[in-house]
Amino acid sequence: MPTCKKATSLYFRHTDSKEIINTINSLILKTSCGHDNVNTLLLKQIKLVISLPVSIAVNKSIETGVFPSKVIPIYKSKDKQSFKNYRPISLLPNISKIYEKNSP
Known about the structure:
By secondary structure, the protein is an alpha+beta fold. The chain contains four helices and two strands.
């Protein structure tokens, strides 16, 4: 019977400006925005200007293990004073899609 090895670590590789530009090019055009009010159309229009700063930010996030997010409670039903009647929603900016696509 073949043996299976367990993975003991996970490695995220660093990215560069060229990969960021390629990732932005692959994003589907949408007009919806995250809490930063940036849509994918705008990202495509400014990709040459932001590719280096975004690659630095993605690499720093990989190095530190920190990824910023904004979580807000959304009311479901019943008593509005009860915490159990809310669900958390992550509001991620469209730029986070670049990070996701550059991760393994």
